[in-house]
Amino acid sequence: MGYRWLRWSTEHIGHRLTGSVQGARAEAAADSLFRLSGLPLVQRFPFRAEAWARGTVRLTIGEGTAWSHHQAVALANTPLEADVEAPLLDAGNGLASDWEALGEHVAGHAVLVNLGLVGAPSGAKNLHRSEKAALARAAGAASVLFVNQVEGGVLLTGTASIDGTLLNIPAACIAAEDGAALRERLHSGAPITARLTMSNTSAVVEANNVIAEIPGTTRPEEVIVVGGHLDSWDLASGATDNGLGSFSILDLARAMATMPAPERTVRFVLFMGEEQGLLGSRALVQHYRASGELQRIRAMINLDMSGNPQGFAVGGPEGWGALLASACASVRAVDSASFQGRAEEALWLHSDHQPFLLAGVPVIYPLSDLGKHVYGCYHSSCDDIHLVDPQAMVNNVRFVGALIYWLSAQETLPSHFTSAVLRERLIAAGLEEPLRIGGDWPWD
User: Fold this and answer.
1) CATH 3.40.630.10, applies to 2-40+215-437
2) Fewest CB atoms within 10 Å of the CB: 48, 86, 130, 163?
3) DSSP 380
């Protein structure tokens, strides 16, 4: 059913941008589907958000007396009005080391920055585009042109703001081919000027996370959260990012409502505002902290662009790694043909598990490989239903559901992170720098 519902959404709703008419329709559809599936508890969690929407963007490149227009797409949370003309400078991968090497030369320049890593030193870790934009602003850049690494003229959108606030400099994405051509001219010594003009809109709106719950039979006070973001960018229908995960959650809830209830309470959460800075999950975790509800949540399973899981990764304190390995072995014993049973311990950021993780809650994520043809359409105009494999969504439901029932049946689950252990693990995973850039590092 999940695939059928997702196909209907792509045909009748379209994109699901938070704050848009389509976003509100997606919230209403998810609420209705939970109720029609027989979930005993369904509610909406409202939160207020600064909803950015794209207007027009124009990129003009000048070299001497010659000017040419290039395709570009504005990144979200960029200024409502901007018209910036500045000399162009190549800032490479946009990592801290790149800005340090350029030093004071960045000030007043338009900067060319790779979205991915190109020719980076061994062991270098990439940063999110919002973190690169923050470093560019700190270095004094006048504007940022991100170069997509997907060939074929594909333009990528996404937020350039870490926390959802509007930037004070414009940022846009250009195609890989245009980026390569500009670099070639820059490296030949040609002085190039970039004029980036944009007009966007923004308004404070009320959006809703959509929540449904199946109460546990023997340990109802302990909650396993299964979440994924319902919202998507506006260039396409968001079929893989993240219709693939969110509509699998709707189907999982439908299936579990027809089965014996799990021993622990299972709470299904479809978040809005993820793409604009984890707005819905931040608001919900803040509420859970204030109400004391956070202590009831034993784990958070996040489905973001997950399909046909071959295992699971966990970020948790001692005990969670071994527990997950046992769970994966149990699931594989049921279906060794389709499920590899991989189990890993890992921490990463920039999805709705992040606020839960920083609050100490153990987080689990499916291990999937959707293929280059899917990841190349991430946040772009080609993210549509033709990329979705229906069986991948079926396997989402099968394997995530099996994991939930297995975890729910355990007599005890390991604890939350202590503050000290979480800090140590985040540092070991190389996540201190991006969290500090984003203002999310919880320690001094």
Assistant:
1) yes
2) 48
3) B
